[in-house]
C-alpha cells in the first residue's frame, strides 16, 4: 500500500474515533457542576428579586439561563423530594423571595435560618419568587 | 399553600428510562372551596443528563416561548374530605391543565392527608406528550415513552400573614 493511502486511512480513523468519543461524551454529559463554573452575575437576593418585581420581562432576558451567585440570609429550609433541598433567601419583599434548589442535599450540613449564605445556581425565571436551580453552596 | 412542592415525571422505554424532578412547584389549596392551583416553570425541571434538559427545554416544551405550566381545578368530592380531622382521604380533582400552550380538562384521583400543621397531597397520573402538541423528533422517538407518568407530592402549610 502506498504511503499516502496509509496516512489518509489513519487520518480518517482518528477523526472517526474522536467523533464517536465526542458524541458519547456529549450524550452522557451530566448537569454542569457550578462549583467550577464562573458566575455571570454576582448579586444580592434583595436586588435580584427587586429586578424581577420591577420588570419581569427585562429581568428574564438578563438573568434566565445564566449562572447567578446570590447572597442573602436564609429565611427557610425545606426538604424536597429526590434528595433535593430548597433554601429560601430573604429579600426586601414579604411575599416574594429567592428560592434555591440544591439537587444533592447531602452537601448541606450546618445550615440554619437567619444565617447569611452565598449560593450559585442557574436562574429558571420568576413564578412567585425568583427560582434558581442546580444550586451549590459557595459559603 | 406551598412554594416548594414537587412534580416529577418518568418515561420508560426498553431503550432508556428518563426522569425529571421539579421541587419548585407553587400551589395553593383553598380548603373551604376545594379549589386547587399549581404553577411551575418548565426550566425548573432537573434531568440527570444535561443534553436531555436542553432538548426538553429547547425542542420539546419550547420553554422560552412557553415558560410556565399551570393547573387550575377543584376537588370534586370535597364532602368526603374533612380538613379538620387528621387522616388520609381519597380526593378527585378535575380541572384545566395547560402545558406548552395547550389546555386540556383532566381528572386525577390522589390522596389528601391531613396532618398536624398542614396537608399533604399526593397523586400519580399519566399524560401523553402528543395531547399537548409536543413533537418528539424521530431520532429520539424510540427513547421517549408515548405515555409519561407524572408524580405530584405537595406539603401544604397554612398561609401565614407576616
Secondary-structure map:
The complex is a heterodimer of chains A (139) and B (162).
Chain A: H1 3-28, E1 41-44, H2 45-54, H3 56-63, E2 67-79, E3 85-89, E4 98-102, E5 116-126, E6 130-137
Parallel strand pairs in A: 1-2, 4-6
Antiparallel strand pairs in A: 2-3, 2-5, 3-4, 5-6
Helix pairs in contact in A: 2-3
Chain B: E1 2-12, E2 17-30, E3 35-41, E4 46-47, H1 50-60, E5 68-75, E6 87-99, E7 102-115, E8 118-127, E9 148-157
Antiparallel strand pairs in B: 1-2, 1-9, 2-3, 2-4, 3-5, 5-6, 6-7, 7-8, 8-9
Describe the structure.
- The complex is a heterodimer of chains A (139) and B (162).
- Chain A has 139 residues and is α/β, with parallel strands linked by helices.
- Chain A folds into 2 domains: 30 residues; 97 residues, OB fold (Dihydrolipoamide Acetyltransferase, E2P) (Beta Barrel).
- Chain A is 32% helix and 33% strand.
- Chain A has 3 helices and 6 strands, in the order αβααβββββ.
- A 5-stranded mixed beta barrel of chain A has the order 2-3-4-6-5.
- In chain A, a hairpin with a 5-residue loop joins strand 2 and strand 3.
- In chain A, helix 2 packs across helix 3.
- The longest helix of chain A has 26 residues.
- Chain A is elongated and about 80 Å long.
- With 162 residues, chain B is mainly β.
- Chain B has one domain: Lipid/polyisoprenoid-binding, YceI-like (Lipocalin), CATH 2.40.128.110.
- Chain B has 1 helix and 9 strands.
- At the A-B interface, helix 1 and strand 6 of A face strand 1, strand 2, strand 3, strand 4 and helix 1 of B.
Amino acid at each position: 500500500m502506498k504511503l499516502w493511502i496509509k496516512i489518509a486511512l489513519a487520518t480518517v480513523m482518528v477523526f472517526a474515533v474522536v467523533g464517536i468519543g465526542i458524541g458519547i461524551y456529549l450524550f452522557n454529559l451530566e448537569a454542569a457542576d457550578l462549583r467550577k463554573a464562573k458566575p455571570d452575575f454576582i448579586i444580592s437576593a434583595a436586588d435580584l428579586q427587586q429586578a424581577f418585581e420591577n420588570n419581569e420581562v427585562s429581568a428574564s432576558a438578563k438573568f434566565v439561563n445564566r449562572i447567578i451567585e446570590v447572597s442573602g440570609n436564609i429565611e427557610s429550609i425545606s426538604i424536597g423530594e429526590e434528595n433535593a433541598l430548597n433554601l429560601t433567601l430573604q429579600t426586601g419583599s414579604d411575599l416574594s423571595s429567592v428560592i434555591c434548589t440544591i439537587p444533592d442535599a447531602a452537601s448541606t450540613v450546618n445550615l440554619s435560618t437567619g444565617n447569611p449564605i452565598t449560593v450559585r445556581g442557574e436562574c429558571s425565571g420568576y413564578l412567585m419568587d425568583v427560582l434558581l436551580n442546580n444550586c451549590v453552596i459557595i459559603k | 399553600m406551598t412554594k416548594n412542592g414537587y412534580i416529577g415525571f418518568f418515561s420508560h422505554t426498553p431503550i432508556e428510562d428518563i426522569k425529571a424532578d421539579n421541587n419548585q412547584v407553587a400551589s395553593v389549596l383553598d380548603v373551604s372551596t376545594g379549589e386547587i392551583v399549581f404553577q411551575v416553570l418548565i426550566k425548573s425541571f432537573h434531568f440527570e443528563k444535561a443534553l436531555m434538559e436542553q432538548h426538553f427545554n429547547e425542542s420539546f416544551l419550547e420553554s422560552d416561548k412557553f415558560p410556565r405550566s399551570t393547573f387550575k381545578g377543584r376537588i370534586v368530592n370535597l364532602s368526603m374530605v374533612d380538613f379538620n380531622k387528621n387522616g388520609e382521604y381519597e380526593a378527585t380533582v378535575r380541572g384545566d391543565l395547560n402545558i406548552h400552550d395547550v389546555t386540556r380538562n383532566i381528572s386525577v384521583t390522589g390522596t389528601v392527608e391531613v396532618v398536624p400543621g398542614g396537608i399533604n397531597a399526593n397523586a400519580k397520573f399519566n399524560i401523553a406528550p402528543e395531547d399537548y402538541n409536543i413533537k418528539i423528533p424521530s431520532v429520539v422517538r424510540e427513547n421517549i415513552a408515548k405515555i409519561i407518568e407524572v408524580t405530584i407530592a405537595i406539603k401544604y402549610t397554612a398561609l401565614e400573614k407576616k
